[in-house]
Design goal:
Strand content of chain B: 15-25%
Order of helices and strands of chain A: EHHEEEE
Oligomer: heterodimer
CATH architecture of the domain at 49-131 in chain B: Roll
Largest sheet of chain A: 5 strands, antiparallel
CATH topology of the domain at 49-131 in chain B: Thiol Ester Dehydrase, Chain A
Number of strands of chain B: 5
Radius of gyration of chain B: 17 Å
Shape of chain A: elongated
CATH superfamily of the domain at 49-131 in chain B: Hotdog Thioesterase
Structural class of chain B: alpha+beta
CATH architecture of chain A: Roll
Strand content of chain A: 35-45%
Shape of chain B: elongated
CATH superfamily of chain A: Hotdog Thioesterase
CATH class of chain A: Alpha Beta
Radius of gyration of chain A: 15 Å
Distance between the termini of chain A: 10 Å
Number of domains of chain A: 1
Helix content of chain B: 25-40%
Number of helices of chain A: 2
Helix content of chain A: 10-25%
Number of strands of chain A: 5
């Protein structure tokens, strides 16, 4: 279990591959119909979803009840539907502040050619 | 430069939260399990923060086109939970002293901010009549 105590920044959690196929794109558009206009590119919010999927996959198991408190993102390029996106994850900081367990992660997402798609910094309040 | 972003809204319900959970593979029970969520500091089910955050991206692309996201940067804080039945609306306004920088937000139906932050959007100013020669 990845409790607050277990994190030792800077700590590499490896990388996770995810291919955004047409079915995944259609599921996204069912929730956000206006994002259909991005086709054949992956909408920026869906790219964020891929980052979250990588975070969920690489950081297992987690205590239930963690809270996503902040997010920084820089989009360098949008992937195309059908591309495989590889997201690396690292824990870069942790801090106990006002009895809350703050943990900061950084992500980097690249396409199959290794070109940078976007970077992220995710701040969480850890449940325990 | 557009001074305000186009507003984009979403009505949040459990079905949409489940859809988002399946897309992101984020099945944190705080989003899906009413009994569990009631026992947390949130005191009830809350939506994924990035589910509402997408409305900011939609407000940006509705305002400047789908190309506007390339090179864009968002730095936001999730400051209030989004709950079942909430209608959340994203918007933004240009910061007067900084070309391409916007204050961005998502607010609930009461007008309370649920997300706040800044966005940097690398859009070129549209040429006005005096600029067209």
């Amino acid at each position: 279990m990845w409790t607050f105590e277990a994190f030792a920044p800077v700590q590499d959690f490896g990388a996770f591959d995810y291919r955004i196929d047409a079915a995944a794109f259609d599921r996204w558009v069912a929730l956000y119909p206006d994002d259909a206009a991005h086709r054949p590119l992956v909408p920026p919010g869906m790219a964020v979803g891929v980052m979250m999927r990588a975070y969920m996959a690489l950081l297992q198991p987690r205590p239930p009840g963690n809270i996503h408190a902040g997010q920084h993102l820089h989009i360098n390029r949008l992937a195309r539907v059908g591309d495989t996106m590889t997201t690396s994850l690292a824990c870069v900081a942790k801090e106990l502040r006002k009895e809350r367990r703050w943990v900061t992660f950084e992500t980097e997402t690249r396409d199959a050619a290794g070109d940078l798609l976007f970077t992220g910094r995710l701040t969480s309040i850890w449940a325990r | 430069m557009t001074a305000k972003l186009v507003d984009v809204s979403l009505t949040v319900d459990q079905a949409k939260i489940r859809q988002y959970a399946e897309i992101t593979d984020d099945f944190n029970p705080i989003h899906l399990d009413a009994e569990f969520a009631a026992g947390t500091p949130m005191k009830g089910v809350i939506a994924h923060g990035t589910m509402s955050m997408n409305l900011i991206w939609q407000a940006i692309t509705a305002s400047f086109g789908t190309d506007a996201a390339v090179g864009a940067e968002l730095d936001i804080r999730f400051i209030r939970p989004v709950r079942l039945g909430d209608v959340v609306t994203a918007g933004g306004e240009a910061l007067a002293d900084d070309d391409g920088r916007f204050k961005v937000w998502v607010r609930n139906q009461a007008g309370d901010p649920v997300i706040e932050g800044t966005g940097t959007i690398p859009v070129r100013p549209v040429a006005g009549p005096a600029d067209r020669g």
